[in-house]
Design goal:
The complex is a heterodimer. Chain A is of the alpha+beta class. Chain A has a single domain (3-138), classed as Histidine kinase-like ATPase, C-terminal domain (Heat Shock Protein 90). Chain A is 36% helix and 30% strand. Chain A has helices at 20-31, 36-56, 85-88, 98-102, 110-117, and strands at 3-11, 59-67, 70-77, 120-126, 130-138. Chain A is globular and about 40 Å long. Chain B contains 16 helices and eleven strands. Chain B has helices spanning 17-21, 46-50, 90-99, 108-121, 138-147, 161-177, 193-200, 216-230, 243-246, 253-257, 269-280, 309-321, 335-341, 358-374, 388-396, 406-417, and strands spanning 5-7, 27-30, 33-36, 56-58, 71-76, 104-105, 132-133, 184-190, 212-215, 263-267, 289-293. Chain B starts with a strand and ends in a 27-residue tail after the last helix. Classes of the chains: A alpha+beta, B alpha/beta. At the A-B interface, strand 1, helix 1 and helix 2 of A face helix 11 and helix 14 of B.
Amino acid sequence: MESLRLTFQVAGGDLTHAGEASSQVKQTLRKMGYDSDTIRRVSVCMYEGEINMVIHANGGTATVDVGLDDITITLADVGPGIPDVEQAMQAGFTTAGDQVRDLGFGAGMGLPNMKKYSDEMNIESTVGVGTTVTMVVRIP
Amino acid sequence: MRHSVVLEYQKCRGCTTCIKNCPTEAIRVRNGKATILPNRCIDCGTCLRVCPHHAVTSIPDSFNALQNYQYTVAVPDPALYGQFHNLDSPELVLSGLLELGFDSVYESAAGAELLTGYLASRPEDPDRPVPEISSVCPAVVRLIRIRFPSLLGNICPLLLPTELAAILAREKAVRDTGLSPQEIGVFSIVPCSSLVTAASSPDGQIAPVLDGAFAIRDVYKALLSPMKALAGKSLPSLALAGRAGTGWAFSGGESYAHRAERYVAVDGIENVIRMLEEIEDGRLPEADFIELRACTQGCLGGCFCVENPFIARMRMKRLMGELPEARSVYQPGSRVDDLIASTQKPEYYPTFQLDPDRRVAMEKMRKIQALEEQLPGLRCGSCGAPSCRAFAEDVVMGRASEDDCIFKVRERMQHMAGKAEADEYLPAPFRRRHAIPKDPPAQD
C-alpha cells in the first residue's frame, strides 16, 4: 500500500500557532493533486484535532498518512484523557474554561465536526494516560 | 496566465529580497538575477514594493497610445482622488483628464455602484455559498485560483468595476459619436499592477474590454498642472458616482456599499492568505461577506499610488462627505445583467501540482521530504529559493541542482578535505566553529 507520512509536533497551550500543521497538510495535498473537497475535509479534521490537543492535552503528535485511496489522520497525546467519550462527542458539550472560550474556541463542536468531516473516526482514551484520535477521509 | 510584472535585468543585483517576500514563492534567483515563475505570479506587486534596486516594474501603457484612436475615454479608479491635497470634488480631476487629451471620462466607481445595485437586487438563494468572497481584487482572485481552489465557488460572480465601466463607456461613446467600437480607445487609470494585467489579459472576460491601462503615478504627475489651471473655474459635471462607489478605493468601502452586516474586510496579501486559510478550515461561521484586498488599506495602497495610503484614506473620507450617496442606479433587466451573466467563472489553475499522476506526485513528494530533511532549514536564500522546502521541490522538479545549496557543497568539501576546515566555505552568519560570543558583563 503506497502512502506518504507527514508528522507534526503540536505545541501545547499555544493557540497563536494553531492551524499551522493544517496549513502545511493542505499545501502538501494540493501539490499531490488531491481534490478540493478532500483537502477541505482533511483540513477541518486536522485543525479541530490540533486545537483539541493544544487546549486539553498540552500538545501531542499529529500524523497524516496520505494514501492513494484514503488519508488517515492520527492525533496522539499524553494528556488527561476523556472520561466519557460518548458525552464528549455530543454537539455543544465543552469543558473549556472562560479564557479559552473568550478566544472563540471551546464551543463544543470540535469532536462532532471531526466526525462529520471524516468517513471513519475512532477515539481511544484512558484517563491519566492519554488520547489517540484516528480519522479516515476516503478519496472519492 | 499573462503578467504585467517584469524584471529589469540591468538593475537586478540578485539580492534575494524579492524571493523571500513573494507570497506565492514565484521568484528564484539564478546566475545573479531574479526570475519570475510565470505560472505562480499573481501580479500582486509585492516585489515592486520591496525591491531595493527598483528592478521590478509593471508596464502600464504610454500616453502615446491615445493617438491610435478617434475618440478616447478615461476610466479612472477612485483611488486617484486620494492622491491630491485639498480636493473638494472629483470634478476637478475629471476635467483635468479632459485637458490631458481624453474626450470623455467614465468613473470605475460608477461600475462599482451598478454592481452593488445588482447584488442588492438578487433574490434570496439558499444555495448561495456562505461566505461570499469579493471578486474585485484581481490579485486575490488569482491567489484563490492557484492556492485555494476549494473556495472558488465562494467568489462573487461579478466582473471588475473597471471592466463594467469600460464596456458601458465604449457603448455610450458609440452612441454619442457614431464611431465604430474599434475607433474608440478606452483606458483605465489604475492603482496597481494586477489591474494593468487585467486590462490586457482579463481572467473573467473572453477578450480585453480595455485598450490599455495607465498608472495612477503617471497620470497624477501629468494632472498637476492642468488641475492648477482649472482651479476656481466653473467646471462641467462629469462625475457618475457618489459616496458608495468612490469608497471602493479603500478596504471596507465595498462592504459599506453592499450594506453587508456581517462582513470581514481584510487588506494586505499576508492577511488575505491567513483569512483564506481560516475560511478553508471552517473557522469563520459567522460572516456573510468577505472583502479581500492584496494591498494595505485596499487600492489606495496599490504599488502605483503616490500618497501614503493612510493619508489618502483620510482625504477620501473628506471628499466623500461632499458627494451624494450614489449617482449610478442599477436597473434590473438592464445591460448590466447580460454583462455579469457572460463573465467567466474563475477556474482552478493547478500550478503547484507536482504531477497529474498521483502516484508520481507522491513519489516526488517523498523525495522532496527526504531532501528537505537533509537541508539546514535556515531560509538563507543562498540557493536562490525562498525556503529549504521550495529548494527541495525545485531540485526534484529539475529546476535546481542539489549543489546549489551552499551547505550541501560544504559537506562535500568537508568530505574531500577530511577535516573541519569546511566552515571557511560558509558566510560568517552560518559558521559553527566558534562559540557564540557572550555579551560583556553589565557594568555596575
